[in-house]
Amino acid sequence: MSRAVCPGSFDPLHNGHIEVIGRAARLFDEVLVAVSTNYSKKYRFGIDQRLAFCADSLSHLPNVRVVRMGAGLVADFCRENGATALVKGLRSGLDFDYEVPMATMNRHLADVDTVFLPTGTAFAHVSSTLLKEVAALGGDIRPFVPEAVLRQLVPAVDDDVPSTGGGPSS
Questions:
Q1: Labelling 91: which of 1, 21, 122, 131 has CA 20 to 30 A away?
Q2: Could you tell me if 74 and 5 are in contact, meaning their C-beta atoms sit under 8 angstroms apart?
Q3: What are the distances in angstroms from CA 132 to CA 58, 125, 135, 136?
């Protein structure tokens, strides 16, 4: 059985992620979506919420399992879970330049190959960071996120908008 890992922080999961994971699910018998935490990052959503977004939004893919990655190297996670491949979505050549050294190191550490899938053109400009910024400024992110994320991101962002003070004038 072929098993691949799609690692990421998914803060939040967006439709570009779902598109790449869906394509990976056609290529491998099983895909582990490994939700990670990088302790140097500040997250909008906690690990349990990110796991729930992924589980809810990927439930239509029967050979995809959402798991917590935990601390440590993705290469070790792959070895411990019997994965022979990592799957990474690429939006541009910049992503490729960033990912190739990590792919080479992961192959060295765990003999795991990285499969790069170009993101569909509808999502080539989308990143979790950009979506959080657009939502915070009142922009419409509905075309880019699953419903589970939209329900949580927009109210969470609304709570962060500072009050202008005062109320209606009398």
A1: 1
A2: yes
A3: 21, 14, 5, 6
Task: Name the residue with tokens 């239509």.
Answer: 60
For residues 105 and 6, the answer to whether their CB atoms sit within 8 Å is: no
pTM over 0.70: yes
List pLDDT tens digits, range 44-101: 999 999 999 999 999 999 999 999 998 899 999 999 999 999 999 999 999 999 999 9
Cα dist from 137 to 37, 44, 124, 154, 162, whole Å: 26, 15, 21, 10, 12
Cα–Cα distance measured from residue 146 to residue 54, given in angstroms and rounded to the nearest whole number: 10
Give the pairing type, strands 3-8 and 30-35: parallel
